[in-house]
């Protein structure tokens, strides 16, 4: 039986799927995060083994025509030691052909069969990329929390905390956003100046990226519109900067931030463009594996039938 394997290796979880040449899903698997930048590489490799082994089940890995792994943190493979670790992982799994792509490339392919376009990702971080022949050829943003990640969950969380601190410095009632931020930080019932001091302490006690936990509060608060508007403007700017002028190819939106009110605002700013949403990168990886194995023609490969 001819089949391919697709893997979406993210920072939080890893999903794998085995798909027959006719698009039938033969098996699925799941494990923990396999981003070698945010997890020790050995741990990331172990999660890949678990997810792929589970999806293969009784299938013979030697019969897999191709395997595409969409990996967040693919840049870590520029380290020869990490590359060697993952090469050993593929051999351990018995896979002959493994192509590692970025999570952005498989997310784009999950939303469209078009070979060219733009992908905009806004989850914990943010980045936009230009896709040509289903590969990322250039990027805008993606600098990480210290240098950028504008419009991301981290950025939204930071802006929520900053807005709350500013509100605590002024007279008047606290709004919905400030109240919810203080509650999330465990600072209910404190005096105004004490709450200001404690919020600064709480925010600085965690790893900076943990500010992303406040992002859902921004999406839910009725008085957070200005922050949502700024986020949308920044993200739409990334997407437009990644495109060539007058380009008519699709824009694919990816990530938790773009699934809520920020995404609605981004779509409004990109009106007139073909804006699509990617919600399952593992099937994009499987389809790209099918392209690698069976060729790219109008009749083949078949898109996976989602389980």
Automatic annotation (TrEMBL):
Record-linked Gene3D superfamilies: 3.30.420.40
Keywords: Kinase, Transferase
Keyword Transferase applies: yes
Keyword Transcription regulation tagged: no
Start and end residues of each ATPase BadF/BadG/BcrA/BcrD type domain: 5-258
GO molecular function annotation: kinase activity
Coiled coil: none
Origin superkingdom: Bacteria
Cross-referenced SUPFAM superfamilies: Actin-like ATPase domain
Pfam families per the UniProt record, alphabetical: BcrAD_BadFG (PF01869)
Protein's name according to its UniProt entry: N-acetylglucosamine kinase
């Amino acid at each position: 039986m001819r089949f391919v394997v697709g893997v979406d290796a993210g920072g939080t979880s890893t999903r794998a799927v085995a798909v027959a040449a006719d698009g039938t899903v033969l098996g699925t698997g799941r494990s923990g995060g396999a981003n070698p930048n945010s997890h020790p590489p050995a741990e990331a490799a172990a999660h890949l083994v678990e997810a792929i082994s589970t999806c293969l089940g009784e299938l013979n890995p030697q019969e897999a025509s191709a395997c595409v792994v969409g990996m967040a943190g693919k840049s870590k493979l520029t380290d020869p030691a990490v590359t060697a670790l993952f090469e050993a992982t593929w051999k351990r799994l018995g896979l002959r052909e493994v192509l590692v792509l970025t999570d952005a490339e498989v997310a784009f392919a999950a939303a469209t069969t078009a070979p060219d376009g733009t992908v905009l990702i806004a989850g914990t971080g943010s980045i936009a990329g230009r896709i040509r022949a289903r590969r990322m050829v250039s990027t805008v943003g993606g600098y990480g929390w210290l240098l950028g990640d504008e419009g991301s969950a981290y950025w939204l969380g930071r802006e929520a905390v900053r807005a709350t601190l500013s509100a605590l410095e002024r007279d008047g009632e606290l709004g919905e956003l400030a109240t919810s931020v203080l509650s999330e930080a465990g600072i209910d019932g404190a005096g105004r100046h004490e709450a200001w001091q404690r919020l600064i302490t709480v925010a600085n006690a965690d790893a900076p990226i943990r500010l992303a936990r406040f992002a859902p509060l921004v999406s839910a608060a009725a008085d957070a519109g200005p922050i949502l508007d700024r986020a949308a403007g920044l993200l739409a700017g990334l997407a437009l900067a990644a495109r060539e002028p007058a380009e008519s190819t699709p824009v694919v939106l990816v990530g938790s931030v773009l699934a809520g009110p920020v995404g609605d605002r981004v779509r409004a700013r990109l009106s007139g463009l073909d804006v699509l949403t990617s919600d399952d990168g593992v099937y994009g990886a499987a389809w790209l594996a099918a392209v690698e194995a069976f060729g790219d023609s109008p009749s083949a490969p078949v898109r996976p039938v989602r389980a």
